Amino acid sequence: MHSTQCRYNFYFIPAIVSGKTPKTLLAFTEAHKACNPMSDKGWVDIAVKTSTDGGATWGLVRVLHSEYAQSHGTWVGNPAPTVDRIHGTHIRTIAFCLIHSVCLA
After folding, report:
1. Which residues contact 82 (CB under 8 A, 6 or more apart)?
2. Residue 89 to residues 25, 26, 28, 75, 85: CA-CA distances in angstroms?
3. CA separation (Å) from 63 to 1, 41, 60, 87?
4. Contact between residue 11 and residue 77 where contact means Cβ atoms under 8 Å apart
5. Maximum C-alpha span of the chain
6. What does the pLDDT read at residue 94?
7. Which residues span the domain enclosing 64?
8. Is 50 exceeded by the pLDDT of residue 59?
9. Residue 3 and which of 25, 30, 43, 89 are 20 to 30 A apart at CA?
10. HEC-encoded secondary structure of 8-19
């Protein structure tokens, strides 16, 4: 995972979960660098931003996974974070799809 100030052209499929403290939020998304919002070609990253003040301000984009889609249907996407509320409010798994049919965690 690395932090970046890179500007993405589009964000899709957002998912927000609360963190260990009530004001900590984590926002996961598909981050597209392509100029065409209707295309899955090009660089698609699974990214996260963190807020520690209930969403008033946000940190830098952190890239969890990066994939270059050479053709339609070879992208990563649909991030789905899960939180373990029994053993503490922390992220256990970030699942996302690869090539429309394979899910990674």
Report:
1. 91, 92, 93, 94, 95
2. 11, 12, 16, 30, 5
3. 5, 18, 10, 26
4. no
5. 42
6. 66
7. 2-104
8. yes
9. 89
10. CCEEEEEEEEEC
Q: DSSP string covering 18-82, please?
A: E-SSTT-EEEEEEEE--S-TT---EEEEEEEEEESSTTSS---EEEEEEEEE-STT--EEEEEEE
Give the pLDDT confidence score for residue 1 in this predicted structure.
Answer: 47
Type of residue numbered 65: H
The identity of residue 100, as a single letter, is H
Please give the structure tokens belonging to residue 76.
Answer: 């990563």
The domain total for the chain is 1
Name 29's Cβ contacts closer than 8 Å, sequence gap at least 6: 11, 12, 13, 14, 15, 46, 47, 48, 79
Is the model's pLDDT at 51 over the cut of 60? yes
Residue whose C-alpha is closest to residue 76's, from 35, 36, 31: 31
Length of the chain: 105
Who wins on pLDDT, 84 or 15?
Answer: 15
